[in-house]
Amino acid sequence: MPSTEGCKITFRQELAAIDSLNKKNLELSEKWGQRFDRCAQKLNPEELLRHQLASSPSSEWESMLKKSNLSKSRIDELLAIAQKRIAFRVKVERLRGIIEQILNFKSSDNKAKDGIVLQRFGRDLTRFPNGVLKQFGLLLLASEAKNRSLLKSLIEEVVHWEQRVLPFYGIDMPLSDETWKSVDVLLINATAVIDDSVLLRAFGTRVFQFIERTKLPKFSDLVDTTWSLSELRKLARSAWYAPLIPAFWYSQLAGRVSTNEIAIVVDSLLERTPAKNWNSHDLWVFSDWLPGNTNKRDDIFEAVKELSKREEPYLRELLVRFSENSILRRELESRKIIPSKALFKLKRDYYTDLLKQGRQVDYALYQLTALGDEDKEYLWWFVFNPFRD
Fold this sequence. Notes:
The protein has 389 residues and is mainly alpha-helical. Among the domains are: 105-226, no CATH class; 227-269, no CATH class. Helix content is 64%, strand content 0%. It has 22 helices and no strands. It has helices at residues 11-22, 26-38, 45-54, 61-67, 72-103, 111-125, 132-144, 148-159, 166-169, 177-192, 197-210, 217-222, 229-235, 241-244, 246-253, 259-272, 294-307, 313-322, 326-334, 343-356, 361-370, 379-383.
């Protein structure tokens, strides 16, 4: 009879086992499989079932659950999770088909027909959540319409996106090589009409936060995203560029200059443009730093209050990040912008809600684990990974 020594499976061990299956790491998944086989008699029935489901295609999930010894109510709970995850995959696959059609569009001699197709693309893009793919689609439409001001506005919008929007705005579906080539050409054509080299470089810097340079070789060769410290200092104090994309300069200076120097730069930016007039995606700066001036702080609190009315997942997370600053949290609680609860509970509530939406599952699970919240119920959302098929 196989030894059952060391058969207790912790949350993190089970997470690692499921992750090895999700990533198709054959060596690791085989080792975990041997351990689960050896420990089958000692494991909790749900632990064993999770491993079996994680090793099986989504087409078998329902029958496996119904054949299990779990209660009907429990099976129904788990089926609801599985169905939600499968529904998300179906949506992603449908959107992938739409975005690839849009990004691979080539104009023809029939302008009337092209116009009808582009109008349909515009309607299709309203189904997409905010993010890189939607922005690329909008860039294509603006480029085809030769709408220079809209092109510039769309490019500028991307520059406002900080690195931590990646789990929400990043590309969560595989694209064909043909589509990546089309995107490469699109970015070159879209930016060709922009005669603002600083904005173009800032746009390129942000794009390559989301996408590997090897995916966009031509655009990568075109855009210089290396900033010298002297030019960053100059641009962060310039009359035009400093207030245009304030958080971009903050992100580029961070780690290269002292916190005192950054504070002086941001304080001068607030002199020019009150925080309540900043782009909402630039407000993350104030999760790290607050000015000493009371009026400037009040403007920041008002800006955050407006942000709190938005339902977008990234902006909801930004509100949670503001709460990590004890000064901000007290103000936000006193102004009824966030509920008065412990920081741990505030973060836990947000990330469990994000997990149960069934979209940013990996990210939500990572954040909950970082909090030390290792509830094995969360693992079901990771087990039912329809993208593993």
